[in-house]
Amino acid sequence: MKGPRVRTELPGPKGQAIVDLDKTYISPSYPRSYPMVVAKGEGMYMEDPDGNRFLDFIAGIATVTTGHCHPAIVKAIKRQAETLIHTCGTDFYYEQQAAIAKKLSDICPGDGQKRVFLTNSGTESVEAAIKLARYKTKRPLYLAFYNGFHGRSMGSLSFTSTKTVQRKGFFPLVPGVTHIPFANCYRCAYGQTYGKCDFECVKILEDVLFRGAVPPEEVAALISEPIQGEGGYVVPPAEFFGKIKEVLDRYGILFIADEIQSGMGRTGKMMAIEHWGVVPDIITLAKGLASGMPLGACVAPRDLMDWPSGAHANTFGGNPISCVAALETIRLIEEGLMENAVRQGQRLLDGLLQIQKDHQLIDRVNGKGLMVGLEVVKDKATKEYAPQERTAIVTRAWQKGLICFGCGVSTIRFSPPLIVESEHIDTCLQIFEEAVTEVEKEF
Ligand SMILES: Cc1ncc(COP(=O)(O)O)c(C=O)c1O
Asked: How far is the CA of 96 from the centre of ligand 1 (A)?
């Protein structure tokens, strides 16, 4: 595949037939942004059934780490499918499951061996983490951040707070979860300016919460994404997690780092939390772990993941095909893709910073490695959200052959496969700027 190419109305006739079938039979709860129909993928590109080709700067939302159908991943999957497709890891032992657990123990931050619970998805990794935290601490309460996203099953949904529509109609959720504002320095909840502030986003824990509302000795864990994903690609300042961890340690509260979107080399470190020099007690993974095969994990030190046989298990978690895809994904990340994420992430960031300078609608360009976002605002002085303009830009980019997505109130995110090359970055920037320029004229 050579470059983006859109030669029909979108969707084309074949794509429209699939959209119609889908609309009849598929749950309408999926939050699709626009009617993109995917027939096949190769490397950095996806093709629709009408032969239109799109440059993919979303990668199944940070999932297809090694690009679409990477030959090494396909080979590993094929080989495994011919040998053993499934047997229940809950009841039997097999090498692939033990091997990926050992590898995750090696690559997750923190000295000493860790243990791993393998899952099918992000939400299930979070369920494992919150159950483990409660089981080990024997404490009933939790802390989380506003605008955090942790999944949609009843347990993880109790922590998710990115959009009310995700929670509306589903109460009561798991009780005992208290949310506090995240360190979003562009929109500080306390009206402070980074550099001059006294980290009220951390001090609130002891000065307000633990003093008046939440007994810290009854809190099992705080869960946070190192970089908020669905909530708007928000990168907190360098001191943030170190300060948070200091407070948590004073009260024996566990720190769960939700690396489901930010982990697996995407930010230029194997786990994004390493940028803050903090070792979490529990790490949750999924999305990019197996290049698109369903696999998630909850990783914790041996003495923490110490619960009895039968306390937690599942049927499909750690499926052998997913495990070999994950082992191959990690090999590719270690053999160059993580370095590529640093290099190409900088190119993407620099290009978007230039677009920010040249365009009134674009502000708060931030990110690490290949997890980069920006805010679309009506006015940089007032920072008024511009969700309609945001959606118009994303849709226009798609019509020109570039896939990027919205998140948060009016953020646009870029999370391309880690195989991305300079020419893809340059094409992305060119199409994106064209879309911004056109939308600027229309609003
Ligand atoms: C940080 C984070 N946690 C959890 C989840 C939930 O993962 P899944 O959709 O696989 O359940 C997501 C999904 O977007 C996520 O980004």
From this structure: 24
